[in-house]
Specification:
- By secondary structure, the protein is α/β, with parallel strands linked by helices.
- Helix content is 48%, strand content 11%.
- It has 9 helices and 6 strands.
- A 6-stranded parallel β-sheet has the order 3-2-1-4-5-6, sandwiched between helices.
- Helix 6 links the parallel strand 2 and strand 3.
- Helix 2 runs antiparallel to helix 3.
- It starts with 7 loop residues before the first strand and ends with a helix.
- The mean pLDDT is 96.
- Belongs to the HAD-like hydrolase superfamily. S-2-haloalkanoic acid dehalogenase family.
Length: 233
């Protein structure tokens, strides 16, 4: 048996295929145009900490599951309060900025190339509605897009990765999870998926103890490695 034999590729979306911070910054600038760059970064950090904290509380059982739509609304209100903005329409617009995220330059072409060889599954913490709009805005094309909303929890809970296993109809070790976040890949590993780390400026880099199956600087490099793997099977 060759070193890496896979039947489908599972992709994280936020941060891996789309540039989440850039999209959120644009929304914050629309909300608070008078803020300088450092002020925008402080507000962005406030948003990110809010989302991370609340998703962690849900994972820890300290809060019942709610979708990212509600979490984004909470983060938007928090950021608006910090910026001194009380216009409900502006807050609502900011809450939707997480659905208008630009793709990384290699994302669309990279997915198209990989789709010639493998079924592609998107697996995101974004809600079903948010994922639909996010994919449409960024021009991402899937054979199947799955939301953690269907598991009523968030990655790295194993139940989220199980969605991809169930849809694929294949054992976990025949799926390759691709992400720019080491924590996401560790979650997939715990369920038995193979893993590929793709470096992004905003990702979570691997720790020294991490052992993933593939490492790539982008989707072209990942496709090259997979082509070589297939050629020796």
């Amino acid at each position: 048996m060759s070193e890496l034999e896979i039947d489908a590729i599972v992709f994280d979306v936020l941060g891996t295929l789309v540039d989440e911070p850039t999209g959120l910054r644009a929304g914050i600038r629309e909300l608070a145009p008078a803020f300088d760059d450092s002020g925008i970064e402080r507000l962005l950090s406030l948003w990110q900490r809010c989302i991370d904290r609340e998703q962690r509380r849900i994972l820890d059982g300290a809060r019942p599951y709610v979708t990212t739509e509600l979490l984004d609304q909470e983060a938007a209100r928090l950021v608006a309060d910090a910026a001194g903005v009380d216009d409900p329409a502006a807050v609502a617009a900011l809450a939707l900025s997480g659905r208008r995220l630009p793709p990384w330059p290699d994302a669309v072409a990279g997915l198209a190339r990989l789709a010639e060889r493998f079924p592609l599954i998107g697996l995101s913490n974004a809600s079903r509605t948010a994922l639909l709009e996010l994919n449409a805005h960024a021009g991402l094309r899937w054979h199947q897009a799955l939301s953690a909303e269907d598991a009523r929890t968030y990655k790295p809970d194993p139940a989220v990765y199980e969605l991809a296993v169930a849809v694929s109809g294949r054992p976990p070790e025949r799926l390759l999870m691709v992400a720019a976040h080491a924590w996401d890949l560790r979650g997939a590993q715990r369920l038995g998926l193979r893993t590929a780390y793709v470096a992004r400026p905003v990702g979570d880099p691997p720790a020294l103890a991490d052992r993933f199956d593939l490492y790539a600087d982008g989707l072209a490099g990942l496709a090259d490695q997979l082509d070589r793997s297939l050629s020796v099977q």
